[in-house]
Amino acid sequence: xxxxxxxxxxxxxxxxxxxxxxxxxxxxxxxxxxxxxxxxxxxxxxxxxxxxxxxxxxxxxxxxxxxxxxxxxxxxxxxxxxxxxxxxxxxxxxxxxxxxxxxxxxxxxxxxxxxxxxxxxxxxxxxxxxxxxxxxxxxxxxxxxxxxxxxxxxxxxxxxxxxxxxxxxxxxxxxxxxxxxxxxxxxxxxxxxxxxxxxxxxxxxxxxxxxxxxxxxx
Length: 218
Fold this sequence. Notes:
By secondary structure, the protein is an all-alpha fold. It has nine helices and no strands. It has helices at about 1-20, 25-30, 40-60, 65-70, 80-105, 115-130, 140-150, 160-180, 185-195. Helix 5 (about 80-105) runs antiparallel to helix 6 (about 115-130) and helix 5 packs across helix 8. It is globular, with a radius of gyration of 17 Å. It is found in: Cell junction; Cell membrane.
C-alpha cells in the first residue's frame, strides 16, 4: 500500500508535468507505442535511474545500520526459478502498464474516478501478488538502486528483462489491439525522431493545455 499511495501522490503532483513515469519499463512502453521520442525516453530513463540511486543513498545514510537491512533489495524467494520469476515480473508489469495506458489515454471520454488512485492501486495490486515470488520489482530503477548500494546483483537481470518485456507487451496490447491508435508508420517514426510534437507523453512540445494528463481528471 505504501508503494501504491506513494506513486498515486507522484502522479497527482507531477503527472501534468512529465507524466510521472518514474519507471524505465513504463517509459519503454510509451516508446514502443510511439508516444515519445527516443531522446526523451533516454533522458527519462537516465533521470529515473539517477533519482532512484540518489533516493536510496539518502535512505541509506539516514537509516541506522541495525534496521537498514538490504534496503528492500529485490530477490527471488526460495524455490522460485529465474524463469518463473521473469514470467511473474512480465505479468505484473503488463497489468500495470495496461492500467496506465487506459487511464492516461486522452481519447477516453467521460473518465470517472481518479487517474492517480487507479495507477497507485494497480501498483499495490502487483506488490500484493508479486512480493511472494520476486519481491515485486515492476520497476528496474527501483531494483537497481538497492543493488548498487549493497553490491548485490544476483539475478538482477530478471528485474530488467521481466518489466521491460511486460511493459512492451502492455503497450502493444493496448495500442494495437484493445484501443488501436490510427497512426501510419511514417507518423510513428517521426514521433520517435522527435520531428513533431508528442500528444501523449505528459508534456507536449507546443504551448497550451497538456494533452495526456489533465489536472482536473486526476
